[in-house]
Specification:
ten-stranded mixed β-sheet, alpha+beta, elongated
Length: 215
Amino acid sequence: MSLSDPHLSVREIAGKRAREEARMLDRLIETMRLASFRSYLSATVRSMSAPVPDVLAFAGSNVVEAMQHLRPGHQWPAVTKRRSTHLQNAMAVTAAKARKVCPWRPEPLIADTVVSDWENGPFVEAKVYGSSLEVKVRTEDFVFFTHDGTGSVMLEQSLPDTVVTACVGHRVSDVIDHALLGGREWVIAEAAQVGGGSSLAFDVGRSPVSTPWRS
């Protein structure tokens, strides 16, 4: 045995210990980060668009399960500093609703999770924008999403202009035949041609929500 062998053995042992400690620290940091994130959600999330529970049930999930799987958006936690932007957006949303206009993401994304992928039917996501839990559903023909009591459908193919104009005042289920939209009294408040497709906006109502970590 050479004189260097004992030293190499010590280095190997020390290196293995250092790698194990680094992995342990990574897990600890991730656990603390998730706890901090959930604490923020518990303090801020207070409502959801009314269809959220039904949409999650359609995807084989529920509100508690979906919230347990929520993870921070890519701008976390810097997004929590944008108070002035949030205030401006809130004012814009109020003005938009007064004009019966559906706002598109008036607040930045806080959290999201995939609830159901394409293998099990429509692609369904749960999201948190500002202080509200929302859903987004992608089917082969349209995208349905909610925000703060407003629902929107983006059709992949545009409807004729005369049909789009005539949609206003009719139920969404009269225009689109889908299990998610059927049997609901959602009346189209605005319809427009957007980027090669057609957009329908309608009021869906809001409900209170409690996070599963709130004491």
